[in-house]
Here is the input.
Amino acid sequence: QEGYRDLLDSCRYVFLQHGVIKDDLSGWLNRYNKNISGFVVSAIPEYQSILDGNYFYSPNQVWLTGLPRFDRLYHREENCIALMPTWRMYLMLAPNNETGIRLLKDGFEQTEYYQFYNRLLNDPRLLRALSECGYRMIFMPHPMIMPYIDRFQKNDQVAFGSLNTKYRDVYSRCKLVVTDYSSAVFDFAYLRKPVIYTQFDQEAFFSGEHVYTKGYFDYERDGFGEVETDLEGTVNRIIEYMENDCRLKDQYRA
Here is the structure.
């Protein structure tokens, strides 16, 4: 390590996010915490939010380039729906310094997060509609949750993804995505596919206990699909889309 000290001390940090930033990450990515030399962004509202927010970067440090990943997306649709919730930092312990893996706090199965998604995955009305419409579902929670996916109850109509499942393949095959707050759905929007947001825990999620707080993106105004806030509404909306072959509605296409 001694021989690399000069290199490590003078290295420049370029930040390339895994998707479009829609929430406020300034508590983590501000200049005084990370001192980023090049902050890559993909869209004008995202770009403006970095310059206007509490990030403290100049226009020379924020690079509006887009994501080349979008050019590698493709269509190979099947009658498949993706359920892709993000994680909750307040349900997990600090990451292991060597592996980076976070362990779950005790009582995960009693949390609102687990209870909601386990009920949704096994909702009798939804499973019946999946069968009647000839659809199946794939469960792809955030990679932080993926190591614990087997804690959720399984059934024959929902496939469980893994850390080896390629997101690009899920984006290509599925006709509809259901998420809560994940930025992964920008890929679906890029492919002109419908999105449903299920946000049963808005107050807790944006309370500051997770890694970010609410930013410029308003899900009702800017989102690519309807925002549901409970299990019944979410199931109703999924069934509505299935019965209409998961066609993207005109207002979201616009």
About this structure: The CA atoms of residues 198 and 228 lie 5 Å apart. The mean pLDDT is 93. The two ends are 54 Å apart (CA to CA). The longest strand covers residues 38-41.
